[in-house]
Amino acid sequence: MADPPGCCSTCATCLLCPYSCQWITAKKEKRKGLRTTKYDCSWFLFLFCVFLFTLVWLYFAIIILNDFHNFNEFIFRQKKLWLDWSLVLLIATAVLISYSSVLLVLALCLQLCGQPLKLHWVHKVLLILTALVVAAAFAGLGIKWAEEWKSAWISLQATGPFLHIGAVGGMTLLAWPLASFIYRTRSTGLRVFVLLVYCAAMIALYLAPLGITSPCIMEENQLPPKPALVGHRGAPMLAPENTLMSLHKAVDCDVQVFETDVMVSADGVPFLMHDEELTRTTNVQAVFPERAALNSTAFNWTDLQQLDAGSWFLERRPFPTVQSLSPGDRQEAAEQRIPSLEQALEAAKHSNLSIMFDLRPENHSDYQNFVNVTLGVILQSGIPLQQVLWLPDGFREDVKQQAPGVQHVYGRKRVENEKEPVLHVNLPYQDMSSEEIRQYRRDNISVNLYVVNQPWLFSVLWCSGVSSVTTNACQVLKEMEHPIWLLPSSTYFMIWIVVDCVSFLIIIWAFVLMK
User: Regarding beta strands 270-272 and 468-471, do their DSSP bridges make them parallel or antiparallel, or are they unpaired?
Assistant: First the structure.
């Protein structure tokens, strides 16, 4: 196969070496008889599919970063091992996508230079392994973390218009090696098949915006107010979660609600703690090693006050932001203790901060007493009851009778024929569509969605009209004065038409030029 003009023998040799894993000189007599067979074409197609498969996984990996802290906590509860597994995920994904990308670029360059696509068996094995690893990752995601499929669907509302432009651009660039292949191959049937597949793919991409919807495609004057921020266990990226320091840091972030979790000690003192065990967020293994595996409610208040609730934050670094803490913040974090609900209510009252909490564990045999004790502390604290947002469903009617001023937040959607109107709902962000959020807003129902950490997700929910979001990253979302992007429908339509027209002209030019 002759070299096309402008493709030097050195370049051809350098391309063949990493792709075929053998040194083949570019002299014609050395390359005589080496041609790209249908078998080689099938491996190139497999390479292209593996690249797309890995690219899709990279997209998923970036999307699930919003919720990855939950995964880290899950692994710790199962294995008692703390590690930021998001780094492992990103590094592994980067290796896989880099490998398949390099091979694909080499193959396209070889095609343009008229060289045979003789993929070495080592690359074939590695590509199969790459496909299996990515398939296993998707399977694991579907089995253990199925709600992330909904997250991916929501993400398309933020990225859809840009993914469309990127896909059109990438497929347009394929016109050059595709034209080279079509003009070089001798099989008319194969030529027609490849051309039809390419044309069908481009037509689908050109028309894709007909199916792309996003709440951020709207006029500027239609944008709803910025959602209020609810601090998830305070400001856990800046201070140990569920501590007074975390509450004060949340206030500094202009958070309007402090979201926390309440348990009741063995001697009847409500305190702030999320996990049923104390091992993740305290030094209980050092202070009470023989009791470390017990439920948090098995400890009395005197025992709980002996525990360090801050040093773990500096040692394990649950978020990258821990590294940037000032020496003063580090000292304050190391001195944190488990706060009682009474202390948290006092701090919230002085900061004019609302407090929303779950009462755990819901399946405890003495749960009704937990409710009564917690209500007693709230009523004695003197905090305005409208600043208390009650989440627990158990014995809710008793709460309404004893503290009628408390605001009730429901962890479910409204249903028909409600006895009392639902005014506040608190749901995972995956559980409400943009249309439902808009409808609830029209009906004056406050919607809080959790846990929202990434600006892209916050932007989509902002455009949808959500009332508030629970977040770990209050210091990031506080600084956002506008959604990441906002496009009037007329502007998006113009971009769509221009991109498609430019792409079509470039493809025609590529086929004419290669001929």
Answer: unpaired
pLDDT attached to residue 12: 64
Please check whether residue 309 is in contact with residue 338, taking contact to mean a CB–CB distance below 8 angstroms.
Answer: yes
pLDDT at 5: 45
Residues 53 and 159 in one domain: yes
DSSP string, 372-391: HHHHHHHHHHT--GGGEEE-
* Tokens (6 digits) for 39: 């078998």
Task: Tell me if 1 sits within 8 A of 35, measured CB to CB.
Answer: yes
506 contacts: CB under 8 Å, gap ≥ 6: 172, 175
| Domain contains 376 | yes
Alpha carbons 107 and 64: distance in angstroms, whole number = 32
Whether the Cβ atoms of residue 160 and residue 214 lie closer than 8 Å to each other: yes
The pLDDT tens digits of the residues spanning 105-127 come to: 999 888 887 788 889 999 999 99
Q: Residue 413 is part of which domain span?
A: 228-478
pLDDT score, position 1: 38
The one-letter code for the residue type at 318 is P
Q: What angle do CA 195, 200, 201 make, to 5 degrees?
A: 100
Residues 471 and 503 in one domain: no
